[in-house]
Specification:
By secondary structure, the chain is α+β, with helices and mostly antiparallel strands. It has helices at 44-59, 83-91, 116-128, 170-174, 189-202, 205-213, 226-242, and strands at residues 5-14, 23-27, 32-36, 67-72, 94-100, 106-107, 141-144, 147-150. Helix 6 (205-213) runs antiparallel to helix 7 (226-242).
Length: 254
């Protein structure tokens, strides 16, 4: 199942809180999106990670904003006065990632109460995908209409950054440790042990096919073709599931 495709009609404003300079755009489906640009310095792998990890979060019962492929055409940069933003827009013509904008949402902090079940699921997802970007400094969680939503998964699946000259060995990722220190859900580490097997069982081979099939061919650029790259993502994630799972955080590790 592919992501819906829309065309951007107006660039509204840049979001300067992160290093990748995403921006708010309006599209021809009348939706408003946070656009993650293909021309940003982090590269296309960030967009791939966003799609795959967002799909895995949904399977685990976690809320993430809906995603679309958002096409940028040349006129969108014409009236942008900021040269940095104009350069980014011109470098991002073609397919980009749109994340549904949650108006009125606010950032997660320690005053927001969550259930142990929720905390353990977030911990498992981030440990499984080696996401290093959900700390108290940058929780990447939003509160919207009383629910907590997960955003910004571009720092996960770091292994693909080593694929420039060829696909590496999935076994190296299978048992790669993951540090729970500083994670916003560290307090629920002791709950995770009882849930880990149940959560792992949710990530079936069919799920891995589904979440990797959502990634557009245009973003799967590497030493092999798009289908081979999708297979590589599945192999790395399957290896991590089937390994010794030494990446699971344990009580007392923080």
């Amino acid at each position: 199942m592919t992501l819906p495709r829309v065309t951007a009609t107006r660039f509204v404003a840049p979001l300067r809180e992160g290093g990748s300079l995403p921006g708010i755009v309006e599209a021809d489906d009348l939706g408003t999106y946070v656009c993650k640009f293909r021309g940003a310095g982090q590269g296309l792998g960030v967009l791939v990670a966003e799609v795959i990890v967002s799909g895995l979060a949904e399977v685990l019962g976690l809320r993430t904003p809906s995603l679309v492929e958002i096409d940028l055409t040349e006129p969108i940069a014409r009236y942008e006065a900021d040269q940095e933003v104009q350069d980014l827009l011109n470098a991002s013509l073609g397919l980009n990632l749109g994340v549904d904008f949650l108006p009125g949402s606010f950032g997660f902090d320690s005053s927001v109460e969550v259930s142990p079940d929720f905390g353990a699921r977030v911990l498992w997802l981030d440990a499984f995908t080696a996401n290093v970007d959900r700390t108290w400094r940058n929780p990447n969680l939003l509160v919207w209409h009383g629910d907590v939503w997960l955003i910004d998964h571009g720092a996960a699946l770091y292994f693909h950054h080593a694929w420039a000259s060829g696909i590496t060995d999935p076994a190296r990722f299978a048992d790669q440790p993951w540090k729970v220190e500083g994670h916003v859900m560290t307090a629920f580490t002791d709950v995770l042990g009882a849930m880990a097997g149940e959560l792992a069982d949710l990530v079936t081979d069919d799920v891995l096919v589904e979440v990797t099939d959502r990634v557009p061919d245009e973003w799967l650029v590497g030493p092999v073709g798009p289908d081979e790259l999708r297979a590589a993502y599945r192999a790395f994630l399957r290896a991590r599931l089937d390994g010794a799972r030494s990446w699971l955080p344990v009580r007392g590790a923080a």
